[in-house]
Amino acid sequence: MSTARHTAHAELTDPPRSCPDLDVRDLEKRTRLMRIITRLIAVSDLGSREIARRAGLPMQKISDLLSGKLEHLSVDELRLVYRTIDPSGSPP
């Protein structure tokens, strides 16, 4: 008996796989904030460690942000980092 037949049949009957973290609007917000924040970090006098300390986040979160790993940061965390770097501005 072929296992390919069983796999093909299982794919037709299984519900589609989805990931709750892949909400398009949320991803767009996080991407936009990430771009703004990375620019602010580049022109800021603050280092990554200082930003992490002031925001109360682990340094790894800032490293993830600078590496483009958006799945590790929520919109709220990104807004917190934004306010840490630019306290006078309001995040988009």
UniProtKB/TrEMBL annotation:
Residues 25-79 form the HigA2-like helix-turn-helix domain. It comes from the Bacteria. Residues 1-20 are annotated as: Disordered. Pfam families: HTH_37. Gene3D superfamilies: lambda repressor-like DNA-binding domains. Residues 8-20 have a biased composition (Basic and acidic residues). This is Helix-turn-helix domain-containing protein. It comes from Halomonas gemina. The lineage of its organism: Bacteria, Pseudomonadati, Pseudomonadota, Gammaproteobacteria, Oceanospirillales.
